Amino acid sequence: MLRALAVAAVWVAAMAAAALAVSFSPWWWLAAVVVAAAAALGTWDLLQTEHTILRAYPVLGHARFLAEALRPEIRQYFIESNTEASPFDRETRDMVYERAKGTKSDEPFGTERNVNALGYEFLRHSLRARMATEQAPRVRLGGPECALPYDIALLNVSAMSFGALSGKAIEALNGGAARGGFAHDTGEGAISPYHLKHGGDLIWEIGSGYFGCRDADGRFDAALFEEKANLPSVKAVSIKLSQGAKPGLGGVLPGAKVTAEIAATRGVPIGQTVVSPPAHTAFHTPLEFMHFITTLRALSGGKPIGFKLCIGARTEFLSICKAMLHTGITPDFIIVDGSEGGTGAAPQEFEDHVGMPLTEGLMLVHNCLVGTGLRRHIRIGASGKVASGVDIVTRICQGADFTLSARAMMFAVGCIQAMKCNTNKCPTGVATQDAGLVRALYVPDKIERVANFQRATVASAAQIVASMGLDGFDELEPSMLNRRIDSHRTRTYAEIYEWLMPGELLEDPPETWRSDWIEACAEEFR
């Protein structure tokens, strides 16, 4: 409303200048034309639906697109100045925008990557390369105890809660998931009406706050869980043990964002900051955790039940594996969250220095499951800065079966990394509950962009696999991913890292694993 009034005021100023031109001096016509042009541009900005920034900031928002037009020169300045600007994030954001818009994502004149830099990674290709034929492969979630398995896409929407994101952003993500046939993880903030409006497939995430299935004391409520878990849109349930962006902390939603609608969705008081406990109260040991999985599977009617975590200690995950072996209960999937994930709701120290990065965490989980003979029953998802086809292929080489993306999906919805997530003043209406800013986000356009991005990225991954001379993603292995280890040598992941054989931890643990395997205990998280 304020933006419309501001544009109307500019129209009034234009008419006033025209009146002055008629009454006093024709020189006023120059001012009248300039002001009228600004008013016309502002009116167009308010009415158009393609650009969120222009709807939120009529006229002024064009400065952003001017900067975008100058981007190559600005980028070259940063490179020559050797600043700390992040080319990875900038290039990734540009690529996501282009794929979401359905425009060409190729740039001429080679790469800005330093292929001689320590840690540079590359995939091998083959002289038997071919064109990709399978554009939308699926992975089945559903172990021996699962009655209602779900075939998940290779790239899905990672956990982002209603509350952290606006209702329109959630609606756009879910609409994109429905259109593209991939899954949308709800985040721990419960299932909102916006998650259900378009019927996209949901992975319902249950965090330590049990939002959407909590009693008055904040503890798990089985009846509420059963009611929501049996909704047709809910295809799987994920128990959040920890999150890569804030491992060891529960979720935090500032009170300014807790509107009446969010409070009703989560089952919390209006306007009060919501802090989830750092650990669950429904279980306290690995054995109790396995039985909690069984409880959720029964209450949901046999849907896939899994869990998400950022790895902290190898012994803790091995303790979970021992509990699986002891009880015979296994989850249907495990989502490994890397510590490189971002959030607007955690201290910077936690984001930067706590938790295991995705590469190490993913390979650890894969090896633990292989070494205990459990891998064949459990699918692994990878979540942490997945934004390109190369990212998908790389993560599968490292042990994943499917991937999830948060930041890139936010880019597709319109995020410009304004870094205002925790202030409730996100300029694109993505991470705010400010009604005036949210109004600018035009959902039908963003639905199309989310679906475009996911489709193009999976197609890119499929073509990379075909260029490697492979028939499918299931043929990827660590020997196909290379890393530069010094200025003269590169090695494959099969050579750099240790990979366990099936059942090796049960039969004869390697020396490098023996002490952790002995210390791990199904009776407690160690």
Instruction: Label the structural class.
Output: alpha/beta
CATH homology superfamily of the largest domain = Aldolase class I
Average of pLDDT: 87
Oligomerization state = single chain
* Biggest sheet features: 8 strands, parallel
The CATH topology label of the largest domain is TIM Barrel
What count of structural domains? 2
Spans of 5+ residues with little confidence (pLDDT < 50)?
72-88
Task: Summarize the model shown.
With 526 residues, the chain is of the alpha/beta class.
Write up what this structure looks like.
The protein is of the alpha/beta class and 526 residues long. It folds into two domains: 2-65; 138-515, Aldolase class I (TIM Barrel). It is built from 21 helices and 15 strands. The chain has helices at 2-23, 28-47, 52-56, 62-69, 71-81, 87-101, 167-180, 193-196, 222-229, 260-266, 286-299, 314-327, 348-353, 358-371, 389-397, 407-413, 435-438, 443-467, 493-496, 504-507, 511-519, and strands spanning 121-123, 138-141, 150-153, 155-157, 183-185, 201-206, 234-240, 252-253, 274-275, 305-309, 333-337, 379-383, 402-405, 481-484, 490-492. It has an eight-stranded parallel sheet with strand order 4-13-12-11-10-7-6-5. Strands 1-14-15 form a three-stranded antiparallel sheet. α6 (87-101) packs across α16 (407-413), α7 (167-180) crosses α18 (443-467) and α12 (314-327) runs parallel beside α14 (358-371). It is globular and about 100 Å long.
